[in-house]
Amino acid sequence: MSAIPPYRTKLLALHRDLVSIDSVTGRENEVGEFLVAHLEKNGYQTSRQVLPNRSDTPADRPRFNVLAWPKRKAASLEDVSAPRLLVTAHIDTVPPHIPYSIDSGEVTVDTKIHGRGSSDTKGAVAAQIVALDELLAEGRVRGEDVMLLYVVGEEEGGDGMRHFSRVLNARCNGGGGGAASDPAALLQRLPLATGFDAAIFGEPTEGKLARGHKGLIICTVKARGLAGHSGYPWLGKSANELLVRALQGLLDGDLGSSERFGRTTVNVGVMRGGVAGNVIPEAAEASLVLRVATGPQADGHEQVKQRMLEILRDVDAEAFTVEWGASFGAVPCDYDVEGNVNLLVRKS
Taking every annotated instance into account, which residue ranges of this chain make up the domain Peptidase M20 dimerisation (predicted)? Predict the structure, then answer.
C-alpha cells in the first residue's frame, strides 16, 4: 500500500467544506465568501469580480468571481510581472443541491464521495488550491507566475467567465476601487490584457487532455394549439400532442454528425403543457439542450437549427416557435500530446 500523501487530510477537508455549501447557479455568494476567507487565511490576496444578480439571486447576496494570487512583495507596479498561468474552475452547480457524504471507514482509492459538485467542479477547486499550496511550499512554482480564478454561472450560459474575459481584454476594474497600494487595485492594474501563456480548466475529463468538445444549442420549443373539451377532440388542437410528435422527430432525426464528434444529440430537459386532464391543451413547451457534433465553432450549429425547424414544420407548418439561447458549433482544440492521454469531450 502506498504511503498516504501528507496533504490528503487538507484536501478532503476543503473538498467537504466546498461541497457542503449550496451554490446552485444564481446562489453562489456563500461559496464565494468561503473561498475568499479560505484563500486569504492561507496566504493569498483576493479580489471579487461582482456580476449582476439574476432574478433568483437574493438582493443582499451578490454573485462574484473569485480571483486569487500568492501575496507579492513588490514595492511598485513596475516590479510586478503578469501571471503566466491561469488555473480556473467554476463554483456553481446544477440543481438541486445534494448534501455531502462519504463512505464510512478508512479512506482508500475505492472510497466514494457524494454531493452536488463533488466532481463538477468543486473537486477540481479543492485539488487546484491544495496542489498550488504544496508546489509553492516546495519552491517548484513561483507565486508571481500563477493566478487562480473561480467563476460563477458556468452551468447556465457562462456569464462568470464571459465577465472575466471582458475585464481581461479591456483592462477594466472587475472587483471594486481602491488606492494604488491596495492589493485589489494592484491586481486590476496588472498588465493582464497581454494574456496568459497557458490555462488549466478544472472540468472532469478523466485526468486526460481534452482535444475537442461538442458544440451547444440551448432552446425552448413552443407549440400553440386550440383549447377545447376532451369530449370533443375534433373542435380543438392539442399542443401537447403537437409537442410530443415534434420532440420524437427531433430525437429520431438526423441533426448532423461527424467522424470526430459522433452524432448531434438532444436532451429534453423540461416539458410543460396543459391545465387539466379533460382539457385539450392550448400551449406546451419543452426546454432542450443539444450537443452539436458539427463545426466550425462560429456557425456549425446553424445547420442544426435549420434541420430542427424543418422537422417542426413537417409536424405542423404553423404551430411552433423556437426561442434560441446560447449556441455554437463543435470545437476542435490544438494539442501536441500523443498517446492515450487525450480524449474528446462529448459535452460542452
Answer: 212-315
